[in-house]
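Retro notes - structure team

What went well: the batch runner handled both jobs without manual restarts.
What didn't: labels got mixed up in the shared folder, which is why I'm recording both outputs here explicitly, each with its sequence directly above its tokens.

Job 1
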Amino acid sequence: MSDMTDQEKQLVEWLADMNEDDAFALAKRMLLEQGANPMRVLDLCRAAMDIVGKRFEKGEYFLPELVLAGEMLENIGAIAKPLIKQAPGGEPKKLAKVLIGTVHGDLHDIGKNIVTFMLDINGFDVKDIGVDVPVKTFLDEINAFQPDVVGLSGFLTLAFDSMKETIEAIQGAGMRDKVKIMIGGGQIDEIVRSYTGADAFGTNAVQAVTLCKGWSGVAA
């Protein structure tokens, strides 16, 4: 996003630097007083979260910063999303369907919420089914929602077994070849991906969006 105005650059900078109050006040002013395009403001949020993700990967940011980032996105999104629906032409056509939830035995939802938000503003049709989700609920929701991608989230190491169990159940129900499965959260790597039987793993929301775009045939 090299064509940003000074004000837009300021918003991205404040969001990336965790300057919550100033960032929210500026985003609110842009949306409600200046009539800024809500999709543009969400694009700026996405640019800021790209920076946050990189800082997290480098060890400059930690979980508290991700929590705050998620809260900032939620607050700005609460103002922007209703404006998108009011705009001429309404919301853009949705891309692939993504079903996401934290597997049973795990109550962490910060990472999942950020992924859900990022997928949403990138045009995916996302259904978030919450935390501590039993295997049967995943199967029922896959049947009902018919997603293209299933995202299994889990922060605790015990979640790896739950992920494996859930994916095996999807296989057993004859639905495995109909969905791509990504996993994320905590200390997930290629070894865990192989153990669970998932198609791919992501360590942050940006990677999750890139995966879904790749599987949907959309340029990242």
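Job 2
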Amino acid sequence: MVPFPQNLPEERFYPELHKLVRALLTGERDLQANAANLVAVLYHLLPKINWAGVYWLRRSDLVLGPFQGKPACTRIALNSGVCGLAARERRSIRVDDVLLFPGHIACDPDSRSELVIPLLAGDTLLGVVDLDSPEAGRFQPADQAGLEAAAALLLELSEPRL
């Protein structure tokens, strides 16, 4: 694996993360394998994260895929929680305090903020990338943009089917 520089200034973090993700995923086209490596990288390199994972769309539910962190909810209905909202609306959802989000699904009671990014292959929803933090307000617009770009790399470098 490509080494990741330590103590990067904030403006260099995501460009370096994207280089690492590209290097790690290049040459493997399997979406499941690449998603597993992506969430491992995010979990281990992003500060103040307590869960990172993917949920795959299966009919009308999101079903747990590769993840890092405590055991998670296995199945999420599209009409439930932050993941369901991001999937339904096909847009990223950033929640500063999940305790204030109506219908939040508390898989881990230690989570306080969440960022969910839809995985779209053209018009087809494949699933979502879900990131949780124990810190309220953890995810900022720069994080959302940087993580959306990382999710786009996953889709660019993988076959869109499982």
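One thing worth noting from job 2: The chain has four helices and six strands.
We'll revisit the folder naming next retro.
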